[in-house]
Amino acid sequence: MREQLGGEADAFFASYGQPRTHGLRINPLKLDKGHPQREELIRLFSLRPVPWCGDGFFCGDEARPGKHPYYYTGIYYIQDPSAMLPAELLEARPGEIVLDLAAAPGGKSTQIAGHLGGRGLLVANDPDPERAMVLSENIERLGIANAVVTSAYPGDLRRRFPETFDRVLLDAPCSGEGMFRKDPAIIRMWSPKMVRNCAAKQRALLHDAAAMVKPGGRLVYSTCTFNREENEENVAAFLMEHPEFRLLKEVRLWPHRGEGEGHYAAVLAKEGESAGVRGRGPGGRPGGGPPGRSVRRGRADRATLEALEAFHRFAAEALPGFRLPEEGAPLLFGEALYWLPQPLPGWPDASDLAGLRVFRPGLHLGQWRKGRFEPGHALALACHGSMAAWTLDGRAGDPAVEQYLRGESLPDPDGRGGWGLMTVSGWPVGWLRASGGLLKNRLPKGLRRQI
Description:
Rossmann fold, Alpha-Beta Plaits, 4 domains, 5-stranded mixed β-sheet, 15 helices
């Protein structure tokens, strides 16, 4: 690093003795630029703008936004400010088909989804199933309806989806030199051999990612490490092997030059003009979950249609203000009913997901069991309280809010009926079901606060 940074090396090494930087990113799917609750968040957490991300803010560790009830509503995502750079450089636009190849825990995927604005398709993938589960939970919490979450090896995706995506983000696993302040254990793991091994794996991942970019599309490669071997040298080698790509820009963020833990990103453009989706998967059912029922050419089978009709009856009663996204089709995945995003007519359908481990094939509407529909937690978070027939609304610190987040049922003095939403300042945190003078708590057990 001394050779790489020259006279700046001492300042760089001294930065490791400084406290790490904290940040959060406001979710534009819920709070757009003019929303008054943005100003409330800025005051509440003493936020300061991140220059390279319009929805990003610096905040102090003392703010503890992860403990606030607003966290459960998905109106923001806690993220290192430097890590907000790659998704901004990707410049995803509404209606596009985008792949986040190594997506967990979901910071960049949720950021991309904000740029898509609910249109198009985001495939968020992580090969590690445990990390993919966390990714799926964060996609759900932020109310993202047009995402498919998979856990597949990049080579398997490359063979299935050649030249399919308008934009691909590869935030590659790396030696983590930008994580030293956050996790000192990474310092003990680091070695020159680790750097060499990471660089070799990254080159293979770049090859896989490049094959899935449409002609005329964009690939962003990024790491949270500082050495040249995993960054500029990898990109230079990639360009020698892939003359169909050209380098648009390389950007570095350094911890001694500004706030943030640091990041590297390269923006690469693939020559040519897009000819639409090239890749189609083999027929069959989605893998990685209970057996689903195929949805072919936009036509659903009888069981799927019955489940969808049950959902519509439920929504007419409990969510009269909710409308399914126009671009999509129902998919019955065992007993789970999803709304599968389809940015192109009939694509993707169940056959395109066949054989993949799929954690979330779109928006989970709910469970259809023995002719009865029960709404999914994801559906609650994809709504606003104004869409529901009734809500129990509270503010941070209200006893009812704290009781709900602990998983407790609440009294129902108003004699409500059926399903409703528990909301915090209008934003849902989960379902309630009125029965026998009680509002029964339907917050998933894994999301409840521990007493």
